[in-house]
Each structure stands twice: as C-alpha cells, then as structure tokens.
Amino acid sequence: MTRNTDNNLIVGLDIGTSKVCAVVGTRTADGGLEIIGIGRHPSRGLRKGVVVNIESTVASIRAAVEEAELMAGCTIESVWAGIAGSHIRGHNSQGVVAIKNQEVDEADVQRVMENGRAFALPTDQKILHVLPQEFIIDNQEGVREPIGMSGVRLEAKIHVITGAVSAVQNIIKCVRRCDLEVNDVVLEQVASSAAVLSDDERELGVCMVDIGGGTSDIAVYTQGSLRHTAVLPVGGDQITSDIAFALRTPTWAAEEIKQSYGCALTDLIQEDEEIDVPSVGGREPRKLARQTLTEIIQPRVEELFNLVQEELRRSGLEEVVASGIVLTGGSSQMEGMQELAEEIFHAPVRMGFPEGVGGLNDVVRNPMYATGVGLVEFGREHGRDPSIRDWSGSGWKTIVKRMRAWFRENF
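Predicted structure:
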C-alpha cells in the first residue's frame, strides 16, 4: 500500500466545527493535482473552530482519515492541518534592510522578511504565516520578485498571521494522537483561497468569505497578494440553533430541515409551500409554511453579511474589491445566499468551488471541500520547503541555524 511519505502524495486535513474532512491528492507528471481519496466525519469536539474536547476530536479525525485511506488505497502518515477560530489575528507590517552586494539575493529577502515580522506579540500568540505583499527597491514600488535586482535598500510589505499558542498546540496534539505528523498548520481561509480564487480575481481585488459551521473566515486579496484576514464567530450552526429554538424541534432535525428546505431570501419562496417539522418529546410532527422557516433564516444571514461588510469597511478595502465577493464553505450552499449577498454588498457575488484538480473532481467540486482541497494545494506548492515550520519540537535547531547564518554574514 502506498504511503503518503511519498513526495507525490499530499493530504489535507480540514478540522472544522461541523465536520472533519481528509482529502488525499497526488502530483501528476505535468505538475498538476489529482484528488484520489476523501474522508468525511461529523466533528464533535470543536466549538467555533477551537478544540474543546480532545477525545471527540481525535475520534473524528481518525474516522475521516481511515475513510480517506480506504478510498485512496494508501497509508496516511502526515497531513497539512487547517486551523480557524476567533483567536486568529492578521497584521500588516513592513521590514527594511540594506542590500549587501548591491544585488538582491535569497539571504536579503529572508532578512527583510525577518525584520518585518519582528514586532511585539502577546505571549499567548504565535506566528502562523508571513506572506509577502510587495517589495520596494530604492523607492521602486510594486516589485514581486526582487531576487537579482540591483539596489542598496530593500523594503518589504508583508501580512503576518498569528494564532493562539494553545489552539495550535491542541490541533497538533489531536493529530498526533491519531499517529500522524503535522507538516504545517495552515490558516483555513488561506487554504480555501488557493482552491477557489483565480489569479485574475486576486489581481483585480476580491473578498472571499468561507462560511463554516462555527465561524466565517474572510480573506481579501488585491494586486495578487493577501491584504486582510479576519474570522467572524458566526456560521451555519447559529442558523441551526435559531431554527431549533423557533420551531421547537431537536437540533438534528433543525439541521436536516436547514439542509433540505433552508432558503436565505423570502422572495424566492412560494406561499403555499409546506414542510414537515419533527416535534420533541414524542409528539406528532407538524406542518409548517416554508415561508416561516425562511423568515427565521434570513435575519441571521443578513447579520452575517453585514458583519462582513463592516469588516471590509474597517480594513479600508471595500472600494478595491472590484471582482466582488466569493462565497464558499459548507454553509454557503443554501438557496438564496448568493442573491441576498448581492442585495447587501451591491457587488458581483459568485459561489466558490474547488477548481483545477483532476481525479475525483466531480465529487470535490463542492464548497464544503474548498478548505480540504486548498490544504492539498498548499502542500503541493510548499512541499518540503525549508521555510515551513518544524512542529516536531526541535525549535532549537532553527535557532542554531539562524545563529550560524548570522555569523557567516557578519564575520
């Protein structure tokens, strides 16, 4: 049986509030990506993207991974794990260094990136990603690839993403309890963006909203780079809770009703449509107008989209997302979501599906698999890149390497 330590096999593990999803991909001869296995299991141990029950989370991960192994015919040993939650913070920063030999090389780029990430962090936060936005060489702005260019001063604008130390450690602990190693912990909206956004959208300006069970993750791109990230503590689970409370029905029944009959816009519902609503305590099911269900759902979805709009305004990027809004994630599939979003944002809105992959393309072409496929895409692009963090606990090795590099540069 193939093992995923083989360089051609990549596994993404989306550990979400409502589901755990394992996606197995393989590199093709032409450098493409082919999806060969998927495993999905309900998630019981997370709340709003954060682990609250390790045993339940471990059981969900193990079940999803075993299903993916069976479908792909491989043994999974390491994964690219996704992380989300309201503890995530995005910071725009800048770094400046002198170019040593009047020509930018890899060492200069590393030094300016290190300089940009050197700002005060709370003790409970750690850096997850340092993503370059653009480089400036001697006041020449908009440089994407600085290596090889001449100059004396190199400046970098970067986006630094941080997360709670405890949240990261708990994700890693759960994965390792399943006898798996973590190649890297990846912010989920960064992964989803890799799967659903086109290069043209990133260049022109786009806001991606990944609506999950517990959280909604925002990523804003302009001029080809990530400019803003945010996590809102509102998702599909809040809609389910509203339905269960308003209709006095069990939570499991509310979820089924939402998936089967849910609609985010009352204008799309005919007045004579009816649905069956299970009751609690063994009572008989009731008939209810579907219009009533939509009147419960629409205010919650409007609240979510208004929060996204407020976040865009706060970031100062509302006017530059010329491509509009891309909705993805499992909770974005509800009827009427796209139409309601267009009414609120007054901008083009489309559904985001994983694109550009082969194999099980017809299966994964679903917003719920955006993060899982995106994690595989991230793994393909970064592979065993030495800049990827080592989560094995051997952080002192990295420190020693940096000290040696410093001595080589200065003596």
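Summary: Residues 199-352 form a domain with the Nucleotidyltransferase; domain 5 fold (CATH 3.30.420.40).
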